[in-house]
């Protein structure tokens, strides 16, 4: 059975990868759901001092190895993604998403992939382009449903988000309760 590829944006990658490891390139569920980060993730990390300080683990060998299996994109697909990006960027740049986010969006659009993002601006634009979306919590719900993670792992991730004041959105507690049937806890 072919993989069901899911593209994870940088924000969701940083929210999930340290606790759910390995996060990328590991198939789960009957549909062989497999997560991939965009090739621009490392470049974004390299040019953003805030990310380098906050996510030092990103450069540890285990995480580098996990990112070593990128999403394979053929020459024809790359051309289509570039064309789509060139079409999207003039409109998108005034709506909040960065160039990297727009590349991720163009990739998800052209390859018909589900995209994981918690970024409200990117979600708004993606909805306009009818790209299938998941939030980080919805992705964890999918992983839980298919036995890839357990509820203890979900609680651990949520506790870290609360501790670091990095919850995915203003409705975090309500969304967590809806998806997991309990209130999130700081530990």
Description:
The longest helix is centred in the middle third of the chain and has 18 residues, at 75-92. It is globular, with a radius of gyration of 16 Å. 52% of the residues lie in helices and 8% in strands. Strand 1 (4-8), helix 1 (10-16) and strand 2 form a beta-alpha-beta unit. The model has no long low-confidence stretch (mean pLDDT 94). It contains 10 helices and 4 strands; from the N terminus they run E-H-E-H-H-H-H-H-E-H-E-H-H-H. A 4-stranded parallel β-sheet has the order 2-1-3-4. The chain has one domain (4-136): 5'-nuclease (Rossmann fold), CATH 3.40.50. The chain is of the alpha/beta class and 187 residues long. It has helices at 10-16, 40-46, 49-54, 61-66, 75-92, 99-111, 120-128, 136-145, 151-163, 172-180; strands at residues 4-8, 33-37, 114-116, 133-134.
Essential attributes:
Rossmann fold; 4 strands; 52% helix
- Largest sheet data: 4 strands, parallel
Helix/sheet category = alpha/beta
The count of DSSP E runs of length 2 or more, i.e. the number of strands, is: 4
CATH architecture title: 3-Layer(aba) Sandwich
* Tally of structural domains: 1
Helix proportion: 40-55%
User: Helix count?
Assistant: 10
Order of helices and strands: EHEHHHHHEHEHHH
CATH class category: Alpha Beta
Write the topology of this structure.
Blueprint lengths: L3 E5 L1 H7 L16 E5 L2 H7 L2 H6 L6 H6 L8 H18 L6 H13 L2 E3 L3 H9 L4 E2 L1 H10 L5 H13 L8 H9 L7
Helix pairs in contact: 5-6
């Amino acid at each position: 059975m072919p993989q069901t590829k899911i593209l994870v944006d940088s924000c969701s990658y940083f929210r999930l990868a340290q606790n759910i490891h390995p996060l990328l390139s590991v198939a789960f569920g009957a549909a062989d759901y497999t997560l991939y980060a965009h090739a621009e993730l490392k470049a974004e990390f390299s040019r953003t001092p805030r990310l380098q300080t906050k996510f030092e683990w990103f450069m540890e060998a285990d995480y580098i190895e996990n990112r070593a299996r990128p999403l394979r994109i053929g020459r024809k697909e790359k051309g289509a993604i570039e064309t789509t990006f060139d079409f999207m960027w003039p409109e998108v740049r005034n709506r909040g998403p960065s160039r990297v986010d727009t590349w991720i969006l163009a990739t998800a659009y052209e390859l018909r992939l589900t995209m994981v993002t918690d970024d409200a601006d990117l979600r708004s634009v993606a909805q306009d382009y009818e790209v299938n979306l998941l939030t980080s919590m919805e992705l964890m719900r999918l992983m839980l449903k298919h036995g890839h993670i357990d509820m203890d792992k979900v609680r651990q991730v949520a506790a870290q988000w609360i501790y670091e004041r990095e919850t995915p959105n203003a409705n975090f507690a309500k969304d967590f309760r809806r998806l997991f049937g309990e209130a999130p806890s700081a530990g």
